[in-house]
Specification:
The chain has 1 helix and 17 strands. With 243 residues, the chain is mainly β.
């Protein structure tokens, strides 16, 4: 389905397999905020392995993505180097603020997250943080921001609920009529007061999407209404009643 492909495209899950039950991961996986006002986000690196790791985080331009303008030069990262010991989590912070005269539209950049050799640093305890290890992670995580309208304008076309193999699905066309990126959460209302999350979707300026996703746990309830929320503000930006 289209939505699943979209998630695979934009959702980053960093996994380094060291054993059958060992991996490292990161959350959240993007930014999607107003960089004209100044956007702040904390990211967390988790280490569920038995080996310590050290990472260097560096902003990079997203030159191959023609849908967005570059914001890498405005990104501040702190700290730039993060050490994560076994069974530990560590945060790093990202702040982005566009120049006052920046044109309206969508912006993007990569955070390059590179695993480094980790020799003992001054003040650290006796354990050696993986000194001499080869690089196992070198990945670019896409983050996005915008300069533009505060309130999103979304058009919903041909919404319908259909059954397939005993499951319920919501299908509709979504058009972003805002002059910048919008990230949305889609919900449906079954019985009055019963709400079900259907998924999240990101639409760039002027983009048209086909949303087609399963409505889980709704069983045989009839869908009364579609609710679309702006995930940045958590405000409802569109409601569509179904007959």
């Amino acid at each position: 389905m289209f939505l699943k492909k979209l998630f695979l495209k934009f959702l980053l899950f960093i996994a380094v397999s060291l054993s059958a039950s060992a991996y490292i991961n990161l959350s959240p996986t993007t930014l999607d905020k107003n960089i004209k006002a100044g956007a702040y986000q904390e990211f967390t690196l988790y280490n569920d392995t038995t080996i310590p790791f050290r990472y260097k985080i560096t902003p990079m331009a997203m030159s191959e993505n023609k849908k967005v303008m570059d914001m890498s030069k405005w990104i501040e990262v702190y700290p730039k180097i993060v050490t994560v010991r076994p069974s530990e989590s560590k945060k790093f912070k990202v702040y982005v603020k566009a120049k006052p005269d920046s044109p309206e539209g969508d912006y993007g950049a990569f955070l390059n997250i590179r695993q480094m050799s980790a020799p003992k640093l001054k003040g650290e305890e006796t354990e050696n943080l993986g000194a001499g290890m080869v690089i196992m992670v070198n990945v670019n995580m896409g983050i996005y921001g915008y300069v533009g309208d505060e309130v999103p304008k979304i058009e919903v076309i041909e919404p319908s609920v259909y059954k397939k193999e005993g499951k319920s699905f919501l299908k509709m066309k979504v058009k972003n009529k805002t002059n910048r990126l919008v990230k949305m959460e889609v919900q449906v209302e079954g019985k009055k007061g019963y709400f079900f999350s259907v998924g999240n979707v990101r639409a760039f300026k002027g983009e048209n999407l086909v949303f087609d996703n399963e409505i889980k746990r709704i069983e045989d309830m009839k869908v009364r209404k579609i609710i679309i929320k702006d995930t940045e503000t958590e405000k409802i930006i569109r409601e569509v009643k179904l007959k």
